[in-house]
Amino acid sequence: MTTWPQISLNTTEGYSQCFGCGQDNPIGLKLKFQSDSEGVRTEFTPGEQNQGWPRYLHGGITACILDEAMSHATGVQTGVNCITARLQTRFTYLIPINQPPVITASIVKKTRKVIQSTAVICLKDGTIAAEGNTTFCGQ
What we know:
Number of strands: 6
Strand content: 25-35%
Order of helices and strands: EEHEEEE
CATH architecture: Roll
Number of domains: 1
């Protein structure tokens, strides 16, 4: 059985400096999410500063985007502040820079102690470029 550490989050300061969604972080991704009953959605146009291999989005930033989307889906759908306990990613296609993929995320399962979410990054033509699954522990 996994034992989750007790963590206290200061949720009164806001998220303006968050690397993923913080709008005041000068080097952040500045992701903005729209939500509906299914989960959340966003688009992000990676630039040259986000590349790994020339002309393609860095895999670590891809994983960060997936994690951020799943975190937002969890917060929006449950109202619970949580942190990532486990993140799994699957990369299936390179994501070109200067072209905005579509990112969607939703909750898969919620129990009293953990929330599991999933996310997908699709290219404009519908090609799945990356998928993620997370386990969050709530506060």
